[in-house]
């Protein structure tokens, strides 16, 4: 995709930190090469250490005696020679291992050599065996029996428990702390579980079937926590499930009631006589008639190249290799159940050019640390999240020029700042590319705390959105968001909501394209969604190209909140530029402010203290919370926008106010291209 001219211009700038560091002096360089041999390894280029831990431990010893034997001034560099460094436990840095503003501790690759921390194993194509078990062959379609191959985990030195089974999870937050199961990659292509229906099949051509009549909705964790929650029972509307010989190990993925809440549930039993399915775990909103789901890990549905089925009891996988598979193909399995790098309390550390792949957990986790830079590396083919920095306080952490590809979860969690004092975190994500994410769990990156920034990044290809915001005074600027929210409903590429203390967010100069999906009868998808009575957001200078789908959809949606500014944006071929929903009474607003969840969230900014930093910075938001009132729709301002082939405002739901309209100033609606070179291809020169 060709990015708009605005984004091309800003992407040419580079963070000042790289230029500043290039001029810094180096006090000491230690070398690591996992192929190193010999009894005398001193970390020199000729006798490098054979592990990263050896270099780290040597540095600890040097620094422990620095009072007697001071090191020269300057940074300390640990330089890794090329290769895949296999890890089943994290490389850990703690408070002993940090640097200072005058001495950074830098872990980087040697020259242009490729260095990768790998949480998996690589096996040869010869590890795949022809299937001879008649019981297995008889369950397979006749036309694929000669193509199916068996991978016996024990024969390649792997216990099935290391690979793992599916893990129950729910989008609403009922997620197991167990790491996701492993994955199989053949020549960098991830195999998918054998499923029914296939993608682009099913009654609606969307890869799902529908739940029938519900006998028992099961527990509903969204509204109550039970000591012994139970799964539901429902009638199946498609009889294919009744033809399968065994339902052991079959799971359901889908939207069991609400189209915005997906999850993964294990099949407990199938009653062919009654035509019902029972699941072991509860769905977040319970099970409802007409829910959309697909069956995963079905041996009888192993029919396409690139699919696989696992038999946990016997520790084997059956698969059909990709079409271009050969005797020279490489097979990789992700096995590590922990992060590959953990930094806890180590300040002024740089991780540069050290790639991460094939972990079932997150790639990098940073806690209780400041001035940490993760830069110039690739994070690929992992089942967890990319980089997590769940920190508070003034941190100045940075994620720069990282390429995230094929992630089970989200790309990053960036934090910093103090909600009570409104101190900025000054942490930043910049110049990153995020592609094909949220493959097995929630995919929205998390922007938290106060005063942090995401800029110059590209987010593409995810069934849900790209960023979820919480906190204050964050800036999201000059990014590209494309091909997102391809599933689900009531969501946005950028999302925030249900917290009246989260204010001061700025979304500036971004490009949104092809946000939405085929679901036209559900609550809509938007580019930016300020949900559940949140507000005080500035959305300025963005381009929205083919954004929005479903009912009540728009480039920007404000669901009940006010004091939002939507200005100087270009909206092309969308449902509408803006929609706001005001459908609750004053009494409902008062009760909402008195809910424990809302009062707790306001307490995070020292509400109801009228002299708190938050109250002084946002006096209008403070007054609304104090008086427990809904802001007038007219506090939402639309000005100086250009809408091409679309509406300015659409689908307003009336409520308390007789005229629930935003304030509109100098907007222009046209039905022609005003001179952009090729908007259909994202070229707005």
Outline of this structure?
The protein is mainly beta and 685 residues long.
What gap, in angstroms, lies between the N and C termini?
A: 14 Å
Please provide the count of β strands: 56
Structural class: mainly beta
The shape, in one word, is: globular
Q: Averaged pLDDT, please?
A: 92
* Oligomer kind: single chain
Kindly estimate the percentage of residues that lie in beta strands according to DSSP.
25-35%
Tally of separate helices: 9
Largest sheet: 25 strands, parallel
Indicate the low-confidence ranges by residue numbers: 1-19
Helix content: under 10%
Radius of gyration: 27 Å
Report on this model:
The protein is mainly beta and 685 residues long. It has a 25-stranded parallel β-sheet that branches. Strands 4-24-27-29-31-36-39-42-45-48-51-54 form a twelve-stranded parallel β-sheet. A hairpin with a 4-residue loop joins strand 32 and strand 33. The chain is globular, with a radius of gyration of 27 Å.
């Amino acid at each position: 995709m060709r990015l708009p001219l605005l984004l091309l211009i800003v992407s040419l700038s580079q963070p000042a930190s790289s230029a500043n560091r290039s001029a810094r002096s180096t006090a000491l360089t230690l070398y690591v090469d996992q192929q190193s041999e010999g009894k005398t390894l001193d970390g020199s280029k000729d006798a490098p250490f054979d592990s990263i831990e050896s270099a780290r431990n040597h540095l600890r010893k040097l620094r422990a005696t620095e009072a007697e034997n001071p090191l020269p001034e300057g940074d300390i560099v640990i330089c890794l020679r090329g290769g895949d460094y296999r890890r089943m436990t994290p490389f850990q840095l703690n408070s002993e291992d940090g640097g200072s503003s005058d001495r950074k501790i830098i872990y980087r690759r040697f020259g242009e050599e490729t260095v990768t921390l790998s949480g998996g194993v690589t096996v040869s194509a010869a590890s795949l065996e022809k299937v001879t078990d008649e019981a297995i062959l008889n369950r397979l379609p006749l036309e694929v029996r000669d193509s199916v191959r068996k991978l016996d985990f024990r024969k390649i030195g792997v216990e099935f428990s290391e690979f793992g089974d599916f893990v129950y999870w729910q989008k609403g937050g009922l997620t197991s702390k167990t790491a996701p199961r492993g994955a199989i990659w053949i020549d960098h292509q991830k195999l998918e579980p054998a499923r029914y229906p296939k993608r682009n099949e099913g009654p609606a051509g969307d890869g799902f079937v529908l739940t029938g009549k519900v006998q028992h909705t099961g527990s509903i964790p969204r509204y109550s926590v039970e000591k012994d929650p139970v799964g539901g029972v429902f009638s199946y509307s498609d009889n294919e499930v009744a033809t399968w010989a065994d339902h052991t190990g079959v799971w359901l993925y889908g939207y069991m009631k609400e189209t915005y809440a997906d999850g993964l549930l294990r099949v407990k039993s199938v009653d062919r006589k009654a035509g019902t399915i029972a699941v072991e775990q509860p769905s977040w909103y319970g099970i409802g008639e007409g829910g959309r789901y697909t069956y995963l890990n079905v041996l009888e549905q192993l029919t396409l190249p690139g699919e696989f089925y696992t038999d946990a009891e016997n520790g084997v996988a059956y698969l059909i290799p990709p079409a271009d598979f050969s005797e020279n193909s490489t097979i990789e399995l992700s096995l590590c159940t922990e992060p590959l790098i953990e930094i806890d309390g180590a300040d002024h550390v740089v991780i540069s050019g050290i790639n991460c792949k094939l972990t079932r957990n997150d790639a990098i986790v940073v806690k209780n640390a400041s001035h940490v830079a993760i830069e110039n590396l690739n994070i690929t083919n992992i089942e967890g999240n990319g980089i997590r920095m769940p920190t508070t306080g003034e941190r100045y952490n940075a994620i720069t020029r990282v390429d995230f590809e094929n992630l089970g979860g989200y790309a990053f969690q960036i934090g910093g700042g103090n909600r009570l004092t409104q101190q900025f975190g000054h942490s930043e994500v910049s110049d990153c590319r995020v592609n094909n994410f949220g493959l097995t769990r929630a995919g929205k990156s998390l922007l938290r705390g106060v005063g942090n920034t995401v800029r110059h990044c590209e987010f593409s290809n995810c069934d849900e959105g790209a960023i979820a915001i919480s906190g204050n005074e964050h800036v999201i600027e000059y990014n590209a968001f494309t091909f997102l929210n391809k599933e689900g409903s009531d969501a946005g590429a950028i999302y925030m909501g249900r917290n009246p203390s989260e204010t001061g967010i700025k979304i500036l100069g971004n490009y949104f394209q092809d946000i939405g999906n085929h679901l036209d009868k559900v609550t809509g998808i938007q580019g930016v969604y300020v949900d559940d009575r949140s507000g005080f957001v500035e959305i300025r200078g963005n381009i929205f190209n083919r954004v929005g789908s479903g009912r009540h959809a728009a480039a920007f949606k404000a669901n009940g909140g006010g004091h939002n500014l939507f200005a100087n944006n270009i909206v092309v071929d969308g449902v509408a530029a803006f929609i706001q929903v005001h459908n609750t009474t004053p009494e409902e607003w008062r009760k909402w402010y008195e809910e424990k969840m809302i009062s707790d969230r306001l307490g995070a900014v020292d509400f109801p203290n009228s002299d708190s930093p938050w109250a002084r910075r946002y006096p209008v938001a403070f007054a609304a919370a104090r008086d427990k009132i809904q802001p007038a729709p007219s506090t939402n301002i639309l000005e100086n926008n250009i809408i091409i082939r679309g509406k300015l405002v659409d689908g307003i739901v009336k409520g308390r106010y007789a005229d629930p309209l935003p304030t509109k100033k100098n907007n222009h609606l046209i039905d022609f291209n005003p001179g952009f070179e090729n908007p259909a291809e994202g070229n707005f020169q």
